[in-house]
Amino acid sequence: NRSGTSLHLVDCESTMKAAILIQRWYRRYIARLEMRQRYTWNIFQSIEYAGEQDQLQLSSFFSFMLDNFTQLNGNERQTMFEQITVPESYSGPHLTFPLTVSHTNALLSAFKEQQPLHGRYMLQLLHQTKKLLKQMPNVIHLSTPYAKEITICGDLHGRLDDLLLIFYKNGLPSAETPYVFNGDFVDRGKKSVEVIILLFAYQLLYPDHMTLNRGNHEDHIMNLRYGFTKEVMQKYKTHGRDILLLVQDVFSLLPIATVIDNKVLIVHGGISDMTDLYLLSSIERHKVKTDCKPTGPSTQEPQYRTYSTGPTTQDLPYRTYYPGPTVQDLLYRTYRTGPTVQDLLPRTYSTGPVVDLLWSDPKSQPGCSPNTFRGGGSYFGPDVTRRLLERHGMTLLIRSHECKQEGYEVCHDGQVITIFSASNYYEEGSNRGAYIKLGRELVPRFFQYQVSRNTRKLTLTQRVNVAEGSAVRAVQEKLFSHRSELMAAFQQYDTSNSGCISVSEWALVVESVVRLDLPWRTLRPRLARLAPDGSIDYQSCFEDMGPGQPIPQVTPNLAETLYRYRTDLEIIFNIMDKDHSGQISIEEFRQTWHLFSAHLGVEVDDRAIDELAKSIDFNKDGSIDFNEFLEAFRVVSALQTNSTLPHLF
Fold this sequence. Notes:
This protein starts with a helix and ends in a 12-residue tail after the last strand. By secondary structure, the chain is α/β, with parallel strands linked by helices. Among the domains are: about 80-95 and about 110-290 and about 380-455, Metallo-dependent phosphatases (Purple Acid Phosphatase, chain A, domain 2), CATH 3.60.21.10; about 550-635, Orthogonal Bundle (Recoverin, domain 1). The longest helix is centred in the N-terminal third of the chain and has 56 residues, at about 1-55. It is built from 23 helices and 23 strands. A hairpin with a 7-residue loop joins strand 10 and strand 11. This is Serine/threonine-protein phosphatase with EF-hands. Belongs to the PPP phosphatase family. Its EC number is 3.1.3.16.
């Protein structure tokens, strides 16, 4: 019996040790997955905000292009929708006004079956929406009657599936199910047209129960960069330009804030220490066609602060934000071997009453500072939130503007809620979407969801691998686009010409040049190879990457430059491509690049550009297919050919 008892105790002890080991292993496994998810998220967000900052920095040039090279301005005559005939072959929904429930049901059914709305009805819908919005104030006031809840949704960004899932789970808009959609209806997603059609249709049907706030992407210059303009022109080839003109007017007329029961403020981005809700009603919001276009100091339009040339009288109130150059600034100046976009353009950020509401983000530290990461609006701390809410007798600020992994986030001691309704925003499985329901007690209830046909089939590890692989590839492309600058900076540390530098030196150089504020030491195994002595072989950052289909006449430096500015070139190309056919003449291509390079101060030999233009014209028809141009200068990584992406742990 004693021996049996001893064996039993040994077995129990072994079982306990095994269980503890398994538990420790599982906790480490989950911790590593969480760590990978966090830095993957940081990559996606940093690259997204860097793109927005580039957009604002180049906004004056894009505005110049719009004003001088297209007819896309307020002077162009708009086509009257009454003159457009709908052919008998059209099988999509037919609309008459005022709209009825049967019309919105027909739109829902059509979009589920991939059927488009005819251009005549689209123009008519926009015309009626514009008439309605003209009558609305800048700030909409709503109330929560007894036993009724208001649903607040955040960014949709052209994700029709998310909108349809919200309607399925929460109910269609009606007097019994009122909604507030808090901006950024368009861009990035492929169904922006269908999203705004449904939102505008329901607003016309239930004007007292369907509220649409303006976001920073309800802006025609943002739409050029992030896809909505291109989507409209592809879906409405005949009437696309007229639709875009009318959309600009509609976007500029959207209300900029909503207040519920005089207690809850809803704005797309946030606030600043200069936000005054009493003054918002006096702003002529329709004059702010874009938040990205500097038009001089005005209470109606964005104002710009410039810090590269020294303080001005307008800068003095903001001097506390910039006490002096940072280590990154000094390193940046040391490593640069020639002027780049950021060097040549002043370090500006846009501010103003409307821009602050659409672009600002909360921060955990007290105070208010320029949102230089995005390039527009402010960072506002909990003290700024508390003061504004107390001044106006409110208790809660609901905003959107930032993707959150769970679809929402609460900060500033519960006084600020971020709500984001586009699931899978960065990558399949990257985040959930969410919406809020507020009842009479004004206690928020959160509802999460995730639209997916594939995510449920993947394990957690597989989902993390997919997102991480996509994020790392984006960083690799960023490194490639700055190859010359990085190599020059690496070589300053490599005094012995060994091709290697320390890990800390490598991380310092990469951050100072790329400026993405990422955990570079953690990412190093995915980006660069270690030498036998533990230093970094810095040339390994680029050895598996190169242009997709390089053209013989193009020098490596030109290929790198073209790749870095490919998004900006595509915007300019789309501006010049009046019919959005995807083609421009060789002469227009030359003009595009010469204007762009002159504006940025990028020195490229004119002969090289002419040879490039001729090389891209493969069929010698005198026009250039820009999709082929982009394909030629995209970055290809050896990792793309691997079925299984390696990961850090």
